[in-house]
Write a structure and sequence with these properties.
Layout (H helix, E strand, L loop, with lengths): L2 H31 L2 H26 L4 H24 L2
Helix pairs in contact: 1-2, 2-3
Length: about 90
Amino acid sequence: MTHLTSAVVVLKTLTLVLGGLITYFAYQAYQRTNSKSLRALTIGFGFVTIGALTAGAVDQLLNVHQSWALAAESALTTLGFAVIVYSLYSE
């Protein structure tokens, strides 16, 4: 494992931890308020976080080209951000 690979693993782990915390706190806010927009925000951050996890897992565990990991992450991040944008405009 190269230094760059190690750095990417560390950064993906931090992304997972921080994204998980944001998702958890958004979920707690949704539980307190029962707001549909906070539920959508939780789902959006969840998709972004799962995108980082999926990319890391695909890259490290599966014998596929790195482009597949990047494509999986990009798709889930795009979906997550679309849900976050929806949450900001919903009532």
